[in-house]
Amino acid sequence: HLAAYSHLFFDSATCFHGTPGVGKTTLGKELAIRTGLTYVNVGELAQEGQLYDGFDEEYQCPVLDEDRVVDELDEKMGEGGMIVDYHSCDLFPERWFHIVFVLRTDNTQLYTRLENRGYTGKKLQDNVQCEIFQIIYEEAMEAYQQEIVHQLKNNTPEDLEHNLERILQWTEQWMQDHN
Ligand code: DAT
Q: What ipTM is given for this predicted complex?
């Protein structure tokens, strides 16, 4: 049943945004399994290619070389059928995506998930605050046409399953509307 979606999805490109820990990777990878689409984790892509430009002392992490990341992905994006996972959307050309999902998690759950990931101090607090102030959602609403941006609550495994079903429906609808 699900394999039938893969050709429907072929020309579309989907993007997941959201604060670290909201569940982008879990959802993106599961969606790729169910649809046959190609999942790309921008953080991992940058690490593999060492697409960095300096080091952020405050957050103790490398700084992405945005131009090189965009160059690296641009050809693949043109082929369609991609699922892209990254916390923010500032660096991506608007033309890349047909549908954008911003995942949201309640702050208590997010706090626990990020603590389990080893985040402490300012990094932990700033990321939870980023979620409370819905920074990523507002960023996405400014970066893309508002009607392609969907916000999804992602607190529990039931939410995850529900979100997968809704994403499959939305994407199918998108294909019907655009073909
Ligand atoms: P992200 O890629 O946004 O940083 P992730 O997919 O790595 O997030 O998930 C962070 C943690 O939360 C990980 O331990 C899996 C868990 N998780 C993801 N989605 C969940 C959900 N819907 N319900 C409960 N836990 C979830």
A: 0.99
